[in-house]
Amino acid sequence: MAKHYDTLETRDPAQREAALMAALPGHVARAQQAAPAFADILKGVDALAVNSRAALAKLPVTRKHELLERQQAARAAAPGRDPFGGFAAIGWRGLLRGDGARRVYQSPGPIYEPEGGAADYWRSARAFAAAGFEAGDLVHNCFSYHLTPGAWIMEAGAQALGCTVFPGGVGNTEQQLAAITDLQPVAYAGTPSFLKILVEKAQEAGAKLSFGKALVSGEAFPPSLRDWLAERGITAYQCYATADAGLIAYETPAREGLVLDEGVVLEIVRPGTGDPVPEGEVGEVVVTVLNADYPLVRFGTGDLSAILPGACPTGRTNTRIKGWLGRADQTTKVRGMFVHPGQIAEVIKRYPEVVRARLVVEGEMANDRMTLRAETSCSGPGELAVRLAETLRDVTKLRGEVELLLPGTLPNDGKVIEDARSYK
C-alpha cells in the first residue's frame, strides 16, 4: 500500500479542523489586503470573525466566470497592468525580489493564472505519493506544456517527491512510444484517454509499455477504464485538480472516493447559491485554498460532488468526496430566454416549506414546457403550488407548471435544472 506523504494526512480530524479554522482569518485578511478583487468582493467583512464554517458560508461565492469578467475589465482598463484581474497577490514584476510569479498560464476563456515560488506550488506531490510514486521514478508526463498549467502541476509534484520527469506533452504518439521504449519510464502522468491510446498503439506494434503505475486527471476516469489498464499491468489512480485551485482531492489504494488535500477548505453548496447542502447531498464544489500568492476565498469550481461519510481505510483522516459527478452550471435557454440555477434557488428561498426543487424543461423547439418539481411536506399544497408558479414567473419571466412531491422524491444528483427536451 502506498505510503502516506506526511503526518498531516493522519491527524485527528478535530485537530485538522481547528488548524484550518485558525488559518481562515489570516487567509481572508491576506485576500482583502493583497488581492484587489477580493478587497472589493469582501468589502466590509471582518476577517477576524471568519473563524468557523458558519462564518465562511456567509461570504459570497466567486465563480469562474467572475474571474474572466474581472480579468477582461482589468485588461480593457489598463493593458498589461494586472492580467489576473485583482485575484492574485503577486505579479511578475516582483520576481527579482523573490516574491513574483515564476510563470503565467492561460486557461480557456482566456483566464490567466500565476505560479508562485513554492517548489510544489499546486501541492500535487500528495497525490503522487498516494498513487505509489517514489523518489527515483522516471515519470512520462503527457499533460500539455503549452499555455495551460496542467503539465507543470504534475511536474512540480513529481519532482517534489524526488521523481525525474520526461516532458512528453500531448500528441506525437510515435515519438512518445519511441521515447518510452528507449527510456523505460516506470510511471505515467496525464489524461486517462491518452494513456489508453499509448497502450493500444504499443499493442498494435506488438510491444508492452514500461509503465506500472499512473496518475491521471483532467477527464472522467470510469472503473471500466481503470480495470482495462489494470489488466495490462498499469495501476492507475486519479486526482482532482484545477488550474486555479491546484490539487483539491486525490484517490488512494482504498478506491473509496477522493481524499481532500490538506491545504483546502471544501464546501458542497446548492448550485446557483452559496448555501451548504447536508452531508451526502450532491452539490457544487466550493473551495477556499490556503495559498498566500493566489488567495482564493469560496471559489466555485462549477463541478458537482458530494461528501462521503467516514474515513479512508488507508488511515488518511481527511474528508472524502465521491469524485466528479458532473457540472453545476445547468443554465439553459427556454423560449429564447436563459434560465439560471440561481433563479431557481431564488424562487425556493422565498418558501421555507420547500425542501428541494428542480426545474424540468421538456418538449421540442418552439414548444418548451417548464415544470418546477418541489419537495414539501406542506399541508396546504394547492395554495403553495399557486404561489410557487407566480414566483417562478416573476423571477424567470416565463410561465411554468408546479408539481409538489414528498421529501426524498427527487434524485440526489445535484441537478437544479434538468433539460429533458428531445431537441436541445
Topology (elements, then pairings):
Blueprint: H1 13-34, H2 36-41, H3 53-56, E1 62-63, H4 64-77, E2 103-107, E3 111-115, H5 125-130, E4 138-141, H6 150-160, E5 164-167, H7 173-183, E6 187-190, H8 192-204, E7 213-216, H9 223-231, E8 235-242, E9 246-251, E10 258-260, E11 264-269, E12 283-289, E13 299-305, E14 307-308, E15 320-321, E16 332-334, E17 337-339, H10 341-349, E18 354-364, E19 367-376, H11 381-396, E20 401-405, E21 417-419
Parallel strand pairs: 1-13, 4-5, 4-6, 6-7, 7-8, 18-21, 19-20
Antiparallel strand pairs: 2-3, 8-9, 9-10, 10-15, 11-12, 12-13, 14-15, 16-17, 18-19
Helix pairs in contact: 7-8, 10-11
Helical residue percent band: 25-40%
State the CATH superfamily name of one domain.
ANL, N-terminal domain
Principal-axes shape call: globular
Poorly predicted runs: none
**Alpha-carbon distance between the two ends:** 47 Å
The CATH topology of one domain comes to Rossmann fold
Task: Summarize the biggest pleated sheet.
Answer: 9 strands, mixed
Strand content: 15-25%
The structure class reads alpha/beta
Report strand order across the widest sheet: 5-4-6-7-8-9-10-15-14
Total DSSP E strands: 21
Number of helices: 11
CATH architecture of one domain: 3-Layer(aba) Sandwich
Assembly type of the shown chains? Answer: single chain
